Amino acid sequence: MAKITASVFTSHVPAIGAAVDLGKTKEPYWQPVFKGYEYSKQWLKDNKPDVILLVFNDHATAFSLEMIPTFAVGCAAEFAVADEGWGPRPVPKVIGHPELAAHIVQSVIQDDFDLTIVNKMDVDHGLTVPLTLMCGQPEAWPCPVIPIAINVVQYPVPSGKRCLNLGKAIRKAVESFDKDLNVQIWGTGGMSHQLQGARAGLINKDFDGAFMDLMIKDPEAQAAVPHINYVREAGSEGIELVMWLTARGAMSDLNGGPPPTVKHRFYHVPASNTAVGHLILENG
Fold first, then answer.
1. Do you know which Pfam families this protein is assigned to (predicted)?
2. Has 193 been annotated as catalytic?
3. Which of 12, 97, 103, 125 is flagged as catalytic?
4. 32, 64, 78, 143: which has the fewest C-beta neighbours closer than 10 Å?
């Protein structure tokens, strides 16, 4: 059967992708950010998955105010890189895994989650920046990727508990797939940041650190934190962090197994007025 072996958590700041694309990774401002992912690149090479389930939020490229799915799964064979206003990033197209994606949709919907099935979707920096941080600049991404989009842009957005439970349902779906696949699940977004208004530029290191602590030790407690706490303490865009809970919900300790092992933890501020957080957990 297929199994989820690890989870990766990372911010998906668009300026990070631009820094890579424009050859600025060695500049003093950006160097500390990319240094924090050196271990991760080697870890991914040493632990290459067959499929990545990548949880992200669309930034008004695939979806708009005309249609806002709460949870959407990309079931296509491939996904083009979105043009976010200055042309598509110069990165490989994303190859999907329609068979596993369809199986996940079937299983998770039968588990009473309403998923939107997406058979055509361009993917933006929310998905491509994490791949770049973990893979560098390859000719092709190392394996197929199934995009899982969560609405954290237009309220109402799903609760942390709902996202955690979605992760549990996804794990159940993967483990019922009858092919032997090594699957990783990645949760992206955040950390603390606000892009507009009187608090633009807000970064809360204490909140971010406490969030990462609970993500490791007590994700159920973190899932119970209400949205207003994220907005108040981590800024209006800090709510993206609930997407990390989807990946965390798929880990072994929340599904009758032992606690995961922390392989890497990294935090840096700022990166384009955003706090960058990163974790790698391996299932026990």
1. LigB (PF02900)
2. yes
3. 125
4. 64
